[in-house]
Write a structure and sequence with these properties.
- The protein is built from six helices and two strands.
- A two-stranded antiparallel sheet has the order 1-2.
- A hairpin with a 5-residue loop joins strand 1 and strand 2.
- The two termini are 37 Å apart.
């Protein structure tokens, strides 16, 4: 079971690395667009559309890695006054709710992506691309995030994640 966990961690690491590369590409594309407009009075067609698609990819590819590293912002107004046991229970409940939400979204996103492929839906914008290119990362990312929420609930139950790690928000 530990081997599967390590493989899953590597998958998340790879997804996070891809998200970081895409974020860098978005920044570079934006600079190219601004410089192109300043020097040549026009930018490169489709940069805004492609950057928007890449931002969706960044969010869905990076979310599970951020959760694994307890990097998501938390609101602890309710849990900060609970006992450690109460905080642990709330952490488990929140993780289970997160897992269910992500897995439900993943399910319906698979259906939406499949329908887009079946119908050949194209995005009507500067660059006509298949809508499925924008959508496939949503069910994939949500499924991985849902599994990570389950793993997080197990870590909290086992006491591997300290309550101070998942209930403290820094401003």
């Amino acid at each position: 079971m530990k081997t599967i966990g390590k493989l899953f961690d590597r998958l998340e690491d790879g997804m996070a690395a891809a998200a970081a590369c895409l974020l860098l590409a978005i920044m570079l594309a934006t600079v190219v667009k601004v410089v192109g407009r300043a020097l040549f009075n026009h930018g490169i067609m489709g940069i805004d559309q492609i950057s928007g698609t890449m931002m969706v990819y960044v969010a869905f590819l990076g979310a599970a890695w951020v959760l694994r590293n307890e990097g998501h912002i938390t609101i602890d107004i309710l849990t900060s006054n609970l006992s450690e046991q109460g905080q642990r229970i709330m952490g488990i409940i929140a993780s289970i709710v997160g897992a269910v939400a992500c897995l439900v979204i993943a399910y319906f996103a698979v259906i939406a992506t499949g329908l887009s492929i079946k119908r050949g839906v194209m995005v009507a914008a500067e660059l006509e691309i298949p809508r499925a290119i924008n959508l496939w990362v949503i069910p994939f990312g949500c499924a991985v995030l849902g599994i990570e929420f389950i793993r997080r609930a197990i870590r909290i139950k086992k006491g591997i994640v300290l309550t101070s790690e998942f209930v403290t928000a820094e401003a």
